[in-house]
Predict the 3D structure of the following.
Amino acid sequence: MFHEIRPAILERMRFLEEIDRRDRADGTPRLARLRQIPPETGRFIALLAASTPAGSWLEIGTSAGYSTMWLALACGQTGRTLTTFELLPEKILLARETIRLAGIESAVQLVEGDARGCLCDYPQVAFCFLDAEKEVYSDCYDAVVPNLVAGGILAADNAVSHGDALQPMLEKVMADPRVDSVIVPIGKGVLVSRKA
């Protein structure tokens, strides 16, 4: 999967990486930045997704589509499709451009709006990547975990970098007997919860 990344995907990844690097260096306000995952986290979530049982794949927080491209690589490997949710109009425009330029339209469905209102429509979730505003993490977790299939995985980014803000949710997750969970110190820290 990583040895055969199409040039269109690599080009778009590099383009978004440069925007993200520049935004972080020049002091672009947090809400205006792409705030995307680093490449090592992209590889990690693609491996996780490709290892899951049958079921739906979800991404909550598309942003410009950087993590979406990593998950699309796993889609190509497994024949799955990804449904990704984004709320902000300016990010939706960038994500649509990314999906088109990367040539991943057949693997990705972009849903515009708040994922929390739609998550109950996905009763058999095999994989969910959560990388949105931290105040929605707990609600998304509560909506997704009951619908995870046995062996299904929810991965949530920023578990270390935003550990203070996420502490109540992380404590809830670690005590939840429905899942086995660990925080992996990769990138900004990824919470991985696997349905028992």
